[in-house]
Design a protein that fits this description.
There is one protein chain. The chain is an alpha+beta fold. The protein has one domain. Helix content is 31%, strand content 18%. The protein is built from 3 helices and 6 strands; from the N terminus they run H-E-E-E-E-H-E-E-H. The strands form 3 sheets. It has a two-stranded parallel sheet. Helix 1 crosses helix 3.
């Protein structure tokens, strides 16, 4: 038989090493979850002529400019959080960024490309980011550090 006498006040931890390892371990599943949402967003966007039906995911059109398919993700190690979404900036003179306007719908003023005339338009919702996020949750692809912490 042996006896173990452990004095905790004599143990020293390198807190920076532990904190760095913890943050690095949390980063991978968060980035994988962001990547999963990005792939689901891309799958929802289909090529098509003209606008999609309200309530359906938006159609994408071939263009030299940045489009809805230009989806980026970013991870912030300080807050251990991330964001994923389209980076399209509207060239229509709209007062709101186009991805958010398509996702939620709304009213905005746009400028005609050739004539320069402005007019007020109402855009029906054509969500794709929110449903992609919900699909990833349902598929169990978002859990770990985010489990119970995510709001839609």
């Amino acid at each position: 038989m042996f006896e173990l006498d452990l004095q905790l006040d004599q143990i020293e931890f390198d807190h920076q090493v532990i904190e760095h390892a913890t943050k690095k371990a949390a980063q991978k599943p968060i980035e994988e979850a962001l990547g999963s949402v990005k792939e689901r967003m891309l799958d929802r966007l289909q090529p098509g002529n003209g606008p999609s039906r309200p309530g359906d995911s938006p159609n994408v059109h071939v263009s030299a400019n940045a489009g809805l398919r230009d989806i980026m993700l970013a991870y912030d190690s300080q807050s251990q959080s991330g964001v994923v979404g389209s980076v399209l900036h509207s060239d229509s003179g709209s007062e709101q960024p186009l991805p958010g306007l398509l996702e939620d719908g709304g009213t905005t003023t746009i400028r005609h490309r050739k004539s320069g005339k402005k007019r007020r338009v109402r855009i029906a919702p054509r969500p794709y980011a929110g449903p992609s996020f919900e699909d990833a949750i349902q598929a169990g692809e978002i859990d770990g550090p985010w489990e119970g912490e995510i709001t839609g």
